[in-house]
Specification:
Length: about 500
């Protein structure tokens, strides 16, 4: 089939799919240099989400599209923008993903590097921010993902809302309110935020995913807007991150209004109490809770969590919670009882005696488990060093027996990993293929012990695809390549967090 496409003239289409699949910046840069066809395909892919790289030099490229009038405004701040507007590509038109925080970060860096005085830096930042959005709109950028802070710049939000073509094809909308503390806002300021949030949601025609992030006092009005929006037959995913469900009484109405909703995610949310859970139980359709992360909060009630898991545990795929929570052992038992489809398990904090309940949970999950994070926070080291050493040893001696035959990601950030315990782990997990293995530190006085253990139990048996250790292993990079094992920097491999993983996968 691929051959027929090539001969029928569909090579660019195939190249586009291949390059998207690679999803690697360095590879795309290399593709630019092959020939014109490859360059024309690679450039739009590189510029879909340009500000996520946090390279402030990209601001210059976009400002080339400024009008003569705008260039005069820049000159008033001592900014000379005499470069030609005739670029090979219309870069602003390629933007598909835009995070206003990433954009502001790049602008601030650009202002610092460009302006010799900080006296007018704030005004210059605001001007650049406004000019760039005008450039994006004028060049018909068509966003698919938009993360916006409402409340930071009301004039800018008004500009965006007045040019609905810029955002009405967004598939993934992430709304965050600035400032997070609404107590200091006047009623007028609150009303403007509510109005802008409502209009932003109601302007959507093809929205598939919405993310309410840290919106606190404005969650009720945001959900009300969603209930009255045009998204009932398009929205498939809702994420709630760091929000308080207290006084939210319309969840049932909202969920029942959404006809194609496939996944709901609650991460670091508060007030999951009996009143809120009762709303969920009263919903006359499945409540497809795919992700649940319970943070360190006294607002969680065991009975409420049990009711939630009875209703939705069969759908739960991603779970994590902080072991500082007093009811953590009971929570583990509830997850083991009601949730059989867990794929992602994150266990930060101080595990203590609850580690055996963790083993029971991993065993019950079985072959479904794809991602496992066990992390000891540094805040406990000074107080529980001896106990953490024992728990680290227990984990390494027992965990391997409960792992599935194949796991995509295993991250062990333990307090004290001895070579002896690490060898026991490697031996007991010898049947498991680990796509990405991350270990923070192996304690050994002999620098050859770790490479010898890796050679014996992992490398020659081809049991991993990627290795990430805080210890420097890059001197083994070429040798391991011959076994199709890639050494990566530990911090490049480690997931940035539960929220980011879920946001990427759904």
């Amino acid at each position: 089939m691929a051959r027929s496409k090539i001969f029928s003239g569909d090579l660019p289409e195939l190249l586009d799919k291949i390059m998207r699949y690679c999803n690697d910046i360095s590879t795309l840069y290399s593709c630019i240099l092959v020939n014109r066809t490859w360059c024309r395909i690679a450039i739009p892919l590189l510029w879909e989400d340009p500000f996520s790289f946090h390279d402030h030099r990209i601001i210059d490229c976009h400002l080339r599209n400024s009008s003569e009038n705008d260039k005069m405004k820049l000159k008033e701040y001592g900014i000379k923008n005499d470069l030609s507007s005739n670029t090979l590509f219309n870069y602003p038109s390629f933007i598909k993903c835009l995070d206003t925080q990433d954009l502001l970060y790049c602008i601030n860096k650009w202002v610092v590097s460009t302006s010799s005085t900080l006296i007018n830096s704030l005004n210059l930042t605001r001007l650049i921010y406004k000019l760039l959005f005008e450039i994006f709109i004028e060049n018909e950028a068509n966003l698919h993902t938009f993360k916006v802070e409402i409340g930071r710049d009301r004039n800018l939000i008004e500009l965006i809302l007045q040019n609905s073509n810029f955002i009405n094809n967004v598939k993934n909308l992430i709304i965050q309110v600035f400032p997070r503390n609404a107590d200091n806002l006047t009623k007028t300021e609150k009303d403007i935020i509510i109005e802008h949030t409502s209009r932003m949601i109601n302007s959507q025609k093809n929205l598939k995913k919405i993310n309410f992030r840290s919106i606190e006092s404005f969650l009720y009005d945001s959900l009300l807007s969603l209930k009255n929006s045009n998204c009932s037959n398009t929205l498939k995913t809702i994420m709630f991150y760091n929000v308080n469900f207290g006084n939210i009484l319309i969840l049932k109405e909202v969920i029942e209004h959404l006809n194609v909703l496939e996944s709901i995610h609650m991460i670091y949310c508060r007030s999951l109490n009996s009143g809120f859970i009762q709303q969920i139980n009263n919903i006359n359709k499945p409540f497809k809770l795919r992700s649940l992360f319970i943070g360190n909060s006294r607002s969680y009630q065991i009975n409420s969590i049990q009711l939630l898991l009875q209703k939705s545990g069969i759908y739960l795929e991603n779970f994590g919670f902080n072991f500082e929570y007093n009811g953590s052992k009971k929570i583990l038992k509830l997850i083991t009882k009601y949730c059989t489809r867990i794929k992602f398990l994150e266990l930060p904090g101080f595990i203590n005696r609850k580690i055996y309940s963790v083993f029971d949970l991993i065993k019950s999950i079985g072959q479904n488990l794809n991602y496992l994070d066990i992390i000891f926070h540094g805040m406990y080291i000074d107080y529980y060093g001896e106990e953490l050493t024992k728990i680290s040893s227990t984990i390494l001696k027992s965990l391997g027996k409960f792992l599935p035959l194949r796991i995509k990601y295993l991250h062990l950030f333990l307090y004290d990993i001895t070579a002896k315990d690490f060898e026991i782990f490697l031996r007991s997990s010898h049947k498991t293929f680990i796509e990405k293995l991350l270990i923070n530190y192996i304690k050994t006085e002999d620098k050859d012990i770790l490479p010898n253990l890796l050679d014996k139990y992992i490398i020659k048996r081809k049991r991993v695809s990627y290795l990430g250790f805080i210890d420097d292993l890059f001197y083994l990079e070429e040798e391991y390549k011959s076994y199709n094992v890639i050494i990566k920097d530990y911090y490049d491999l480690v997931h940035t967090g539960f929220y980011d993983c879920i946001n990427e996968w759904y």
